[in-house]
Amino acid sequence: FVAKRPEFHLGQLKWFSLRELQEATDFFSEKNVVGSGGSGRVYKGRLDDGSVVAIKRLKQRRTQGGLQQFQTEVEMVSLAVHRNLLRLRGFCLTPTERLLVYPFMPNGSVRSCLRERPESQAPLDWGVRKRIALGAARGLEYLHDHCNPKIIHRDLKAADILLDENFDAVVGGFGLAKLMDYKDTHVITAVRGTIGHIAPEYLSSGRASEKTDVFGYGIMLLELITGQKAVDIARLANDDDVMLLDWVEGLLKEKKLETLVDSGLQGNYIEEEVEQLIQVALLCTQSTPMGRPKMVEVVRMVEGDGLAERWEDWQKRKMFHQEFNNTHHPNVKWFIPDSTSRILPDDLSGPR
């Protein structure tokens, strides 16, 4: 960063003064806190021009990493301009503060709409959920295929899919993102993410790639369909799986679609469309990165193009693996490389 404010230019970003942002948030009042995470807190604020913004106040770290994270986020978000990506309006950098300024999303996030909505607010209807699924996919596809260097989100979850005034999806939460050169296929990094949304290979090796995001998208899609958390200990009370992915696959096998879909929809959905989106989600959450589609393919499948063929091909491969394992490894329960494979074979209850 250049030390003198007037000399700093990065696209159309504005360098806000600390005083402006203090006044916008009533000096970072607790009553204006709208979110918090590993990297900092988010405040709702009103600028002098009357516009409402979300101001992310990054935690202060004594290590160089804090500054590097800030530089990465500013650089990255300024590069990524798409209607389904959260647009950075500006920033503030002082010796003691690092702040990012975004447009405020009036309808919260997929997570808040699914699990924190007030009684007076209607649940997201099926048409809106389909639109969110497609918008989020398009946003991620832009990060992967249209940014140079490409961008990996690394921690995509329902809380990161924000909703604008029309309930259109806007992908945010770039604090954990990583820039990639096109020659790179993956980056090895300290695992930072949210349990339940983390792809197996990222958890076990620290290797993140676009396919890590595809896995996170698939889990988010299951949350959108079911209204359930990615990991929920409460499901144990009903002898159900703690992991959402296992729970969905079990119900799908038993053809219990009505149990699987969010009860808030009260049956107002199209079964065929639900099944198709679940198929997309399961293709995205296969245990091996190579098996997962790219986001450009996911966009096409959510739009209804090529899903049937890809699903049928995957089912045939699963059947082949099962037959092969039953013939050659009859006593090995964990060898089947499908979407429910886990790092710890002891967690599996048997062949899938």
From TrEMBL:
It comes from the Eukaryota. Its EC number is 2.7.11.1. It is a single-pass type I membrane protein. Its main location: membrane. It is found in: Membrane. GO terms for cellular component: membrane. Residues 28-324 form the Protein kinase domain. InterPro entries: Kinase-like_dom_sf, LRR_Rcpt-Like_S/T_Kinase, Prot_kinase_dom, Protein_kinase_ATP_BS, Ser-Thr/Tyr_kinase_cat_dom. GO terms for molecular function: ATP binding; protein serine/threonine kinase activity. It catalyses: L-seryl-[protein] + ATP = O-phospho-L-seryl-[protein] + ADP + H(+); L-threonyl-[protein] + ATP = O-phospho-L-threonyl-[protein] + ADP + H(+). ATP binds at K56. Pfam families: PK_Tyr_Ser-Thr (PF07714). It is an enzyme of class 2 (transferase). Keywords: ATP-binding, Glycoprotein, Kinase, Leucine-rich repeat, Membrane, Nucleotide-binding, Receptor, Repeat, Serine/threonine-protein kinase, Signal, Transferase, Transmembrane, Transmembrane helix. The keyword NADP does not apply. The keyword Signal applies. Belongs to the protein kinase superfamily. Ser/Thr protein kinase family. This is non-specific serine/threonine protein kinase. It comes from Gossypium gossypioides. The lineage of its organism: Eukaryota, Viridiplantae, Streptophyta, Embryophyta, Tracheophyta.
